[in-house]
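sry for the spam today, last one i promise. struct tokens for design, 224 residues
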């Protein structure tokens, strides 16, 4: 790694450590501020690695930059989820993250001739899961059902792409990509189900799932 890469890596470790200690000692403001840095820095480090593969990685870099931008916005707006505008912008930003990844990984449909049975079976499973998540999430407004459904189904589509990779091109990249999209789907499901419920460490748990899922998706690009 170059010096600049080590600086970014060290900064990630530093802010992660600050976040952990501020959580332990219940320093809310420090925890909220420090939590905003590790994931964007991780994204920038990922882009730095991809720069070494230019010009082949140009398309990947472009969409990764878009994803990192919306990842940063999602986390920022999540800090204000108690506000109506914060919740709406958080959902929109998360949808845009998934949209960027879908644009990057939809190429699998051109690489592999996906069987019809695979599409029907996976689609059925995702719709059943969505129905179960909405039921366990309790009564909500129609707009909430609609926005949550869009988030879940977009994440499900990305997970389906990763499943195609895993089934038909099994390798380390496919495993990491699938793990990331599965955790992303789990993050959305958890958020929908426990949205209105007060749980200790709920926000920290959602943040951890979010960070691991997005890092897994990002860094699966480096293994191809």
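last one done:
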């Amino acid at each position: 790694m170059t010096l600049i890469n080590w600086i970014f890596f060290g900064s990630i470790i530093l802010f992660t450590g600050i976040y952990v200690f501020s959580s332990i000692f219940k320093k809310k403001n420090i925890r909220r501020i420090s939590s905003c840095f590790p994931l964007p820095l991780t994204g920038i480090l990922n882009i730095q690695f991809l720069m070494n593969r230019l010009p082949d990685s140009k398309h990947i870099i472009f969409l990764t930059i878009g994803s990192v931008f919306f990842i940063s916005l999602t986390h920022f707006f999540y800090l204000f989820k108690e506000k109506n505008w914060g919740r709406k912008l958080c959902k929109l930003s998360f949808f845009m993250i998934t949209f960027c990844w879908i644009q990057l990984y939809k190429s699998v449909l051109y690489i592999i001739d996906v069987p019809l049975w695979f599409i029907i079976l996976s689609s059925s499973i995702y719709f059943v899961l969505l129905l179960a998540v909405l039921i366990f999430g309790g009564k909500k407004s129609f707009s909430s059902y609609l926005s949550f459904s869009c988030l879940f189904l977009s994440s499900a589509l990305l997970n389906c792409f990763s499943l195609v990779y895993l089934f038909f091109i099994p390798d380390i990249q496919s495993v990491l990509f699938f793990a990331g999209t599965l955790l992303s789907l789990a993050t959305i499901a958890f958020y929908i189900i426990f949205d209105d419920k007060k749980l200790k460490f709920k926000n920290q748990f959602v943040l951890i799932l979010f960070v691991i899922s997005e890092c897994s998706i990002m860094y699966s690009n480096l293994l191809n």
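The radius of gyration is 18 Å. ok im logging off now
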